[in-house]
DNA sequence: TCCATTCTTTACAGGTGGGTACATAAATAG
DNA sequence: CTATTTATGTACCCACCTGTAAAGAATGGA
């Protein structure tokens, strides 16, 4: 009972996520969050408790939407190499189309000192682990079908690819040269 | 003429670099900088002008010391694969020995929104380019001597390795599992 | 010795940060 | 209709942030 919320929690978290994504945790102000969510300070603190708690919610929301979409992309049919290549090409398109060069929120969180301890570190680690597992499964499929060589352990291959993936996202932040990023993609695929 | 400085500029920049490295640009306060450098606010602002200008100096200092040391490591004699492997193994040792998990300052700078525009972005880009060139030279050497296959363009190989290198540094921030990181190393070397 | 110059110290300014208190509004249960 | 519960809006707190002003301390040169 009691007075009902005038907003959807998820919509507010989505808006907050955008703020943290653009500015990072430290640089984002509670005023930014109020403006973007459309909430007054009272409502925002009543609903989420603190800036940091809202940040954690935003990271969870990112995992459940953006990161999840990436993982689903890997489950589509077709050759394993094509799926992994499409994952990287999709990232290049998305990152270069974004004028703010926000990159990956989880990766940004890992970069800030506040993201290397406590609950945030756990959320980031989980997203990294999920990606590792998804790639690992895919490599196993490729090795089973004979598309990929089975000379090296699947987990090692998966981890090397994952690493190249994060490196790609880092590079996409500082370079405007698509050719550089495409070299990374072809290099990573050739290494499978 | 005039009253002489009571400190060495480089020592102050080194101390400031440590602060930015540990906390990031946004979270570092001018008070942190004063305490760590041992300077009063007046001296600090007189010498460096602003927090942001000092940040740029710190990045330059990082490039001239830490990053430069990495590049020199690549110039030592021996097989190309060994040199590139040692680069990565050195990073694993350094990153895991660091309780603060600070990682690479340039990479951290790229993660913060303030590091994606203006002078800071340029400084970061330059460090990335320097590493790309160093690896590229090394791959060319390896291909010329026959140690590495010449099937793929040296620049592509170099860029893929560089990408894995940055991915490794990202992963080193969130995982405590050395085996994961060693997989990345072996995967990246095998891809040469 | 006196001056111009540069550095150091201290105090402070103006603004902004995250967070809270409180009065008011909107709903339900009885 | 009243009591209770929950949400909203406003006003506010106070700690802290970056940057500056001003006065005193060292230097070199005339």
CATH architecture of the domain at 60-190 in chain A: Orthogonal Bundle
Name the structural class of chain A.
Answer: mainly alpha
Biggest chain pair contact, residues each?
Answer: A-B, 49 and 49 residues
Radius of gyration of chain A: 19 Å
Residue runs with pLDDT of under 50 for 5 or more positions of chain A: none
Instruction: Please report which band the strand proportion of chain A falls in: under 5%, 5-15%, 15-25%, 25-35%, 35-45% or over 45%.
Output: under 5%
How confident overall, as mean pLDDT of chain A? 97
Helix content of chain A: over 70%
Helix segment count of chain A?
9
Biggest sheet statistics of chain A: none
Order of helices and strands of chain A: HHHHHHHHH
CATH classification class of the domain at 60-190 in chain A: Mainly Alpha
Shape designation of chain A: elongated
Oligomer: homodimer
Keywords (chains A, B): DNA-binding, Transcription, Transcription regulation
InterPro entries (chains A, B): DNA-bd_HTH_TetR-type_CS, Homeodomain-like_sf, HTH_TetR, Tet_transcr_reg_TetR-rel_C_sf, TetR_C
GO molecular function (chains A, B): DNA binding
Pfam families (chains A, B): TetR_C_13 (PF16925), TetR_N (PF00440)
